[in-house]
Amino acid sequence: MSNSTPAWMGKWAHDLREPLSPIQSALYLLRHGASEGAERDDLFELIDRQIRRLVSMIDEVNDWVRADQGRLLHIRGPVDLMLIIEGTLSVAGGGGIQIEYGEGAEHARVLGDAPRLASLFSTMFWLMSSPAADGSRPDALATVSVDRAGGVIHLEGALSPAVAGHGPLETLFAQPQPASLGDGMGLRALIALAIARGHGGDLAIRDDGPTGQRLHLTLPLHDESTT
């Protein structure tokens, strides 16, 4: 392999192979009849779990490719921002994230793709609450505000210190992460950025001085009077 080959390519080869080893081991035990009853059920569950993990990795790469080709979003109409945010938190079990809505933010709407917006918020909350090496999670507060004069919605919150420990922040929205947080291909931040920009907004990290790095999302506010 050339020295110019990106580090994330080697990580992909390793990560895509990783689920296959337990699958192969489980299939060997099942094929040779070395397991029965509950143990057999556990092996089938292991196979199913690892296949789902592998499919999730492939889907992540597919989303990245679709984003690069401009085919990621399907804008269907106005969606309630608060509904998407609270639904995302509910599915994720909260993750220690508290949401503070500014004046008018609870009724703000965005013209967009609801499932992709949910994916965007899920990634943002994951970046705000990623656990440290000891498993502890920071208490995270995300604020949602509306600038009606500028026609913009803002969502921001402090970046988890654990994120900086997994790679330089300047590359987070520029290239795949070779040391990704969690179980994935290191593409979640890139896909989230593509979703934000596909909706006419942006996603970036801002240096907030003493309070550290903050994740900041902007989305165009849907103006009901124009529809």
From TrEMBL:
The keyword Kinase applies. Gene3D superfamilies: 1.10.287.130. Transmembrane segments: none annotated. The keyword Transcription does not apply. CDD domains: HisKA (cd00082). It holds the Pfam family HisKA. Its EC number is 2.7.13.3. SUPFAM superfamilies: Homodimeric domain of signal transducing histidine kinase. It comes from the Bacteria. InterPro entries: His_kinase_dom, HisK_dim/P_dom, HisK_dim/P_sf. It is an enzyme of class 2 (transferase). Keywords: Kinase, Transferase. It catalyses: ATP + protein L-histidine = ADP + protein N-phospho-L-histidine. GO terms for molecular function: kinase activity. Residues 11-223 form the Histidine kinase domain. This is histidine kinase. It comes from Lysobacter arenosi.
